[in-house]
Amino acid sequence: MSTIGIIGAGAIGSAFAKALAGKGLEAIIANSRGPASLADLARELGPSITPGTREQAAAQDIVLVAVNWSKLPAALAGLPDFGGRIVIDANNPIEAPLFEPAELHGQTSSEAFADLVPGARVVKAFNHLPAHLISDDPQAEGGHRVLFFAGDDAHAKSAVSGLIERLGFFGIDLGSLEGGGRLVQIPGGPLPVLNLVKLG
């Protein structure tokens, strides 16, 4: 199993960590305030989730990034080239308190994000559901909750699809980072916040 890092310990990052912990999957979680600030969260989630530095989280095989849009450049600045490792973009170009869309100059948010993680194989995922639906039991209404993902690298998408399945969700591949990313982007995409369940 690939090792997992999480950069960002807000609602989505913490929910993803909780989902991993529920399956006994190990991860290193980091935020801007340092490992000591995450001790209580790690204690709550259990022994499989370890607080670490941003650099430690970024060094893992699969790295999920979930940070307020305006803080992404600072959160990712100065990290080494990702060297072909997988980075999951769980971000949306909008944030409290104003919830005004960021200026993307015609790009999707994932294309803008990819510029911040040189060398990474970016997969868009875990951004389109409220945090509690990521951390809650994905077996719902007699089926499995749907998680969409998109990316340009088939092997990276296969790895993320496998992780989605291990967490108990039903993954649906939306295609390319540009096309699929646009479908799940908040704001503007038609698919976010839809709590869909694959029956059977």
Question: What does this molecule look like?
Answer:
This protein is of the alpha/beta class and 200 residues long. Helices cover 30% and strands 21% of the residues. It has helices at residues 11-22, 39-45, 54-58, 72-76, 109-114, 131-135, 154-166, 177-184, and strands spanning 4-7, 27-30, 49-51, 62-65, 86-89, 121-125, 139-140, 143-151, 170-173, 197-199. Strands 1, 2, 3, 4, 5, 6, 7, 8, 9 and 10 form a 10-stranded mixed sheet that branches. Strand 7 and strand 8 (143-151) form a beta hairpin. The longest helix is centred in the C-terminal third of the chain and has 13 residues, at 154-166. The chain is globular, with a radius of gyration of 15 Å. This is NAD(P)-binding domain-containing protein.
Compute the CA-based radius of gyration. Answer: 15 Å
Mind telling me the CATH class?
Alpha Beta
Determine the CATH superfamily. NAD(P)-binding Rossmann-like Domain
Whole-number count of domains: 1
Essential attributes:
30% helix, 21% strand, 200 residues, alpha/beta, Rossmann fold
Strand and helix map with partners:
Elements: E1 4-7, H1 11-22, E2 27-30, H2 39-45, E3 49-51, H3 54-58, E4 62-65, H4 72-76, E5 86-89, H5 109-114, E6 121-125, H6 131-135, E7 139-140, E8 143-151, H7 154-166, E9 170-173, H8 177-184, E10 197-199
